[in-house]
């Protein structure tokens, strides 16, 4: 049995260790969908060599367009992998486990689920059993892990709902009797009631209107701050990242292309893809029409050679076509994967000077 | 609670509608034939050798009233319904002067017993096994059961009953193959009688269960394999909820609702199957009665059985419909 | 189209088995046109001979070669089943498409009628009908009666497809360009509905042959015409089981069971192929 470590929160015994160790360390993760159907074989490279670290007490935002592999990544680090998805390589190391997530036996896995590692998922509106009252879901999910008597358990649940500003009446409702936003909030409360060390959140606010979105985000922040969980927060919506993420990672076509503290990434995006993403965000007073990226996101079953962004990149060089760049640290806490970007020549604001300079260059080359 | 009451009322309205339309159809069929049913009935009744002219004339008169061949269409219609309201279908021709209602009254309990027992067994067992098969997809025993069910399902009632009859009647005779109970026992609440009833019901129940279980198994398996991909199931698995609890509380409970609806839709077909099974095994229910009635040309008995079966099936549907909101809280009650 | 069939045959075991069985049955039926004996005559061969080289399925107590009788019976039963299925498809298509497309009041009325028919026990009503028709009963009339009772289940299926089609863009476009309702239903919606109709046809054929067998065995259809049901009827009349002439009963029962399973497997595999969710499920299992 792998060793577990406590984190010294309210209903647990005091314990815990130094915060030097990262909450989550992923190295070289590779996960593909492998399918053979009616004689046709397909290999979808959804997660292709990803390395990242999430520190204690931090919210790490993961951004990228649809079908860039974000959700697959989440499934992998939550160990929710089913055929045809297969993990082909790499390690995933949580601070509360002493070995790779995939080397852990089933019993330990069941133990750590929810009490140390929990998830808030896409489509959280449908995660509650429709034929049972909410209270039953709390019983099913959290009760086995908390080791309390039923009475004490519900006291703890009520206390938890209270501090997240949810009415305890939700416990006796059926899911379809609550609104979408309400269900989302209940799902978040459910995911955090055991005060897990690590919370994975995949697009928890996507289907909600902005008013509810703000409340939900506030709730997530509060939950995280109150029990000090670390979090990976996945969404394509950069504005949400701006509000909530401490550090930001940008994914493109199954690979990480840029990473850094959120504010820095927003003010000075280095990778050409990130630059376009940031540039496309509406700003008050900015009346310039936005340019769209040429081309379309690549198919992960048949990705472009070398750097996957090169067909759409205005900085593309020959080497970009041939081999893919590794994530290199270009400044403390900042990493990017790009052959072309020169970190020393950059203008604040929308588009780096370096890009403007080589656009003429690239246009000449592509014009052949 | 009030909304539930409204729901029950609506379902009852549907019940009345079905019974009304059904019996009207039966009525219309009888009144659109070119044959004079009265004369035909008389001629087939007199075949059995009672030729007392006054009795025959009385019969003719009573039949004319029952079939309503006198008067205008509306008069006949109203007459029919007034007689129906008191459950009077007139005398049976083949068992004159026993009334049709008496004959049906004797046979109906057997049919209802057969139907409820076999439907309960086949629905519950079929759904349970099908649910397991949909969840534990790699299990070889369940896969084998699945193949058997696929083979059983399309076989129609008569062939299945025949096969069971051949199996246990000729090849391996361990159960009685005809009758409802042993001939020399009198119907009373004695142990010997009850035991005999049970023995005689084993083969008919077995046939009916084999006929219907395939549908439930295959349906449940398919529903469960879809539910397994639902968000709430994936989430529960992600949370490490105990597998048995997921199967019972998250999967089965949600799959039961559509299966219950399926049950209401199939009640008519199950009833048909019961009729044929009774006929093959000579079980003293409404089915055997119906076939004999057709064979002997007992018109009023056939009409009576048709009406009663419409009411019986509609009642079954009504009962299940009323239970439905208790299983699935999402049903809109208004 | 042919490629789809070929792929199905090669990769889908159920389809392969089903198609093989059905082809065998059809071959058997076609063979009846080459029968050396006139199908309606009796006592053309010595009776009650067990299966042997001269008579591959033996002969029955009426002096007929069981194999050739079976062939003719299968042909008749199959034709009957197909005609019932065909007529009831038309009815359920009309009702389903119209009801789903028009919606509102028309839909509610049609569906109430539909549900009433679904719930009603058909057997007693059919028996009532035949009892009254008596000597005027003929196969076409029987087919019509069964078709009139067999459409409701599938009409509902078709209706749900029609409901979803109604809100699609190409429908609104057709409406705006002035297509009449019947034209929209036939030209635009029908192609979507046809695959489902095809699958339900198999089940319907099963159902009608099954019902035919049941009615014939009881003896209320025209028992002179050789069908699977009438074969069993005559076998029962001559107490074949007790007399030991088991091949007379086994041949039609086995053949008709093969037909049912074959058609059912075809229907199931086509349904699976059409339904995208089951396709995904299969992809997960194939690795």
Mean pLDDT of chain C: 79
Instruction: Please state roughly what percent of the residues of chain B sit in beta strands, choosing from under 5%, 5-15%, 15-25%, 25-35%, 35-45% or over 45%.
Output: under 5%
The percentage of residues in β strands of chain C lies in under 5%
What's the CATH architecture of chain C? Orthogonal Bundle
What fraction, in percent, of the residue positions of chain B are helical? Answer: over 70%
Rg measurement of chain C, Å: 22 Å
The quaternary organization reads as: heterotrimer
Specify the CATH class of chain C.
Answer: Mainly Alpha
Major protein interface: B-C, 57 and 49 residues
Question: CATH superfamily of chain C, called what?
Answer: MetI-like
Number of helices of chain C: 13
Q: Could you explain the architecture of this structure?
A:
- The complex is a heterotrimer of chains A (368), B (334) and C (287).
- Chain A has 368 residues and is an alpha/beta fold.
- In chain A, 30% of the residues lie in helices and 21% in strands.
- Chain A contains twelve helices and eleven strands.
- An eight-stranded mixed β-sheet of chain A has the order 5-6-7-3-8-9-11-10, sandwiched between helices. In chain A, strands 2-1-4 form a three-stranded antiparallel β-sheet, covered by helices on one side.
- In chain A, helix 6 packs parallel to helix 7 (210-227).
- The longest helix of chain A is centred in the middle third of the chain and has 18 residues, at 210-227.
- The N and C termini of chain A lie far apart (62 Å).
- With 334 residues, chain B is an all-alpha fold.
- In chain B, helix 6 (140-152) crosses helix 8 (191-227), helix 8 (191-227) crosses helix 10 (243-281) and helix 10 packs antiparallel against helix 12 (299-327).
- Chain B is globular.
- The termini of chain B are close together.
- The model of chain B has no long low-confidence stretch (mean pLDDT 80).
- Chain C has 287 residues and is mostly helical.
- Chain C has one domain: MetI-like (MetI-like fold, Orthogonal Bundle), CATH 1.10.3720.
- Chain C is 77% helix and 0% strand.
- Chain C has helices spanning 2-11, 13-31, 66-102, 104-119, 122-133, 139-150, 152-166, 169-176, 181-218, 228-237, 240-243, 246-274, 276-285.
- In chain C, helix 9 (181-218) packs antiparallel against helix 12 (246-274).
- Chain C is globular.
- Chain C starts with a helix and ends with a helix.
- Chains B and C meet through helix 1, helix 7, helix 8, helix 10 and helix 11 of B and helix 4, helix 5, helix 9, helix 12 and helix 13 of C.
């Amino acid at each position: 049995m792998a060793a577990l470590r406590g984190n010294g929160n309210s209903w647990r015994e005091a314990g815990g260790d130094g915060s030097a160790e990262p909450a989550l360390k992923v190295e070289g993760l590779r996960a593909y969908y492998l399918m053979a159907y009616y004689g046709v074989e397909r290999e979808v490279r959804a997660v292709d060599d990803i390395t990242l670290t999430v520190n204690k007490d931090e919210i790490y935002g993961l951004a990228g367009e649809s079908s860039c592999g974000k959700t697959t990544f989440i499934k992998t680090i939550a160990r929710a992998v089913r055929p045809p998805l297969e993990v082909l390589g790499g390690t995933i190391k949580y601070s509360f486990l002493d070995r790779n997530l995939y080397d852990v036996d089933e019993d330990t896995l069941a133990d750590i689920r929810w009490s140390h590692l929990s998830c808030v998922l896409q489509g959280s509106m449908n995660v509650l059993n429709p034929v049972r009252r909410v209270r039953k879901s709390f019983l099913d999910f959290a009760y086995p892990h908390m080791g309390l008597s039923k009475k004490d358990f519900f006291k703890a649940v009520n206390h938890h709902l209270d501090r997240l500003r949810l009415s305890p009446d939700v416990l006796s409702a059926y899911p379809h009797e609550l609104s979408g936003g309400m269900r989302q909030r209940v799902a978040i409360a459910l995911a955090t009631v055991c005060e897990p060390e690590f919370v994975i959140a995949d697009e928890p606010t996507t289907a909600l209107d902005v008013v509810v979105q703000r409340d939900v985000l506030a709730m997530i922040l509060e939950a995280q701050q109150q029990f000090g969980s670390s979090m990976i927060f996945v969404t394509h919506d950069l504005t949400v990242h701006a509000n909530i993420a401490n550090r930001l990672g940008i994914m493109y076509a199954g690979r990480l292309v840029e990473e850094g503290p959120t504010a820095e990434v927003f003010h000075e995006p280095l990778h050409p893809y990130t630059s376009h993403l940031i540039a496309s965000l509406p700003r008050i007073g900015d009346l310039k029409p936005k340019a769209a990226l040429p081309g379309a996101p690549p198919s992960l079953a048949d990705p472009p050679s070398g750097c996957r962004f090169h067909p759409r990149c205005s900085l593309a060089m020959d080497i970009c076509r041939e081999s893919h760049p590794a994530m290199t640290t270009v400044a403390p806490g900042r990493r990017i994967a790009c052959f072309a970007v020169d970190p020393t020549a950059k203008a604040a604001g929308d588009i780096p000077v370096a890009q403007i300079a080589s656009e003429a260059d690239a246009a000449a080359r592509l014009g052949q | 609670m009030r909304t539930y009451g409204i729901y029950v009322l609506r379902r009852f309205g549907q019940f009345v509608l079905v019974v009304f339309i059904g019996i009207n159809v039966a009525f219309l069929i009888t009144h659109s034939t070119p044959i004079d049913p009265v004369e035909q009935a008389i001629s087939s009744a007199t075949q059995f050798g009672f030729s007392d002219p006054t009795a025959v004339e009385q019969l003719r008169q009573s039949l004319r009233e029952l079939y309503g061949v006198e008067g205008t269409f509306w008069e006949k219609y109203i007459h029919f319904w007034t007689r129906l309201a008191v459950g009077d279908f007139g005398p049976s021709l083949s068992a004159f002067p026993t009334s049709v209602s008496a004959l049906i009254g004797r046979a109906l309990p057997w049919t209802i017993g057969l139907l409820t027992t076999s439907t309960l067994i086949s629905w519950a067992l079929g759904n349970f096994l099908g649910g397991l098969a949909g969840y534990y997809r790699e299990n070889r025993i369940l896969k084998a059961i699945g193949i058997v069910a696929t083979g059983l399902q399309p076989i129609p009632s008569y062939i299945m009953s025949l096969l069971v009859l051949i199996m246990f009647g000729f090849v391996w005779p361990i159960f009685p193959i005809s009758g409802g109970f042993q001939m020399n026992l009198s119907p009373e609440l004695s142990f010997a009688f009850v035991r005999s009833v049970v023995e005689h019901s084993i083969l008919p129940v077995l046939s009916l269960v084999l006929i219907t279980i395939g549908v439930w198994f295959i349906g449940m398996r398919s529903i469960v394999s879809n539910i397994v991909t639902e968000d709430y199931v994936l989430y529960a698995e992600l949370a490490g909820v105990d597998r048995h609890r997921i199967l019972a509380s998250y999967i089965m409970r949600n799959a039961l609702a559509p299966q219950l609806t399926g049950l209401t839709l199939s009640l008519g077909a199950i009833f048909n199957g019961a009729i044929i099974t009774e006929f093959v095994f000579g079980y003293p229910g409404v089915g055997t009665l119906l076939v004999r009635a057709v064979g002997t040309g007992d018109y009023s008995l056939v009409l009576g059985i048709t009406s009663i079966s419409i009411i019986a099936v509609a009642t079954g549907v009504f009962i299940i419909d009323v239970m439905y909101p208790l299983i699935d809280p999402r049903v809109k009650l208004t | 189209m042919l490629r789809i069939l070929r792929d199905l045959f090669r990769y889908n075991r159920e389809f392969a088995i089903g198609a093989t069985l059905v082809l065998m049955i059809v071959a058997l039926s076609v063979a009846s046109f080459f029968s050396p004996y006139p199908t309606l005559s009796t006592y053309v061969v010595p009776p009650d001979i067990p299966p042997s080289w001269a008579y591959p399925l033996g002969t029955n107590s009426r002096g007929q070669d069981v194999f050739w009788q079976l062939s003719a019976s299968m042909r008749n039963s199959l034709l009957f089943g197909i005609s019932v299925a065909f007529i009831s498809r038309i009815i359920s298509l009309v009702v389903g498409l119209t009801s789903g497309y028009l919606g509102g009041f028309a839909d509610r009325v049609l569906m109430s009628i539909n549900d009433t028919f679904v719930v009603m026990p058909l057997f007693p009503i059919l028996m009532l009908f035949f009892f009254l028709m008596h000597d005027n009963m003929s196969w076409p009339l029987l087919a019509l009666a069964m078709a009139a009772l067999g459409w409701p289940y599938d009409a509902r299926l078709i209706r749900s497809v029609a409901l979803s089609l109604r809100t699609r863009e190409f429908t609104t476009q057709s409406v705006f360009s002035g297509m009449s309702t019947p034209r929209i239903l036939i030209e635009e919606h029908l192609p979507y509905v046809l695959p489902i109709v095809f699958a339900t046809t198999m089940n319907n054929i099963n159902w009608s042959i099954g019902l035919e067998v049941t009615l014939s065995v009881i003896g209320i259809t025209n028992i002179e015409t050789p069908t699977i049901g009438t074969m069993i009827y005559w076998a029962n009349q001559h107490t074949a089981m007790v007399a030991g002439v088991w091949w007379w009963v086994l041949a039609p029962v086995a053949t008709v069971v093969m037909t049912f399973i074959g058609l059912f497997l075809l229907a199931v595999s086509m349904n699976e192929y059409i339904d995208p969710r089951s396709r995904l499920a299969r992809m997960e299992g194939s690795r």
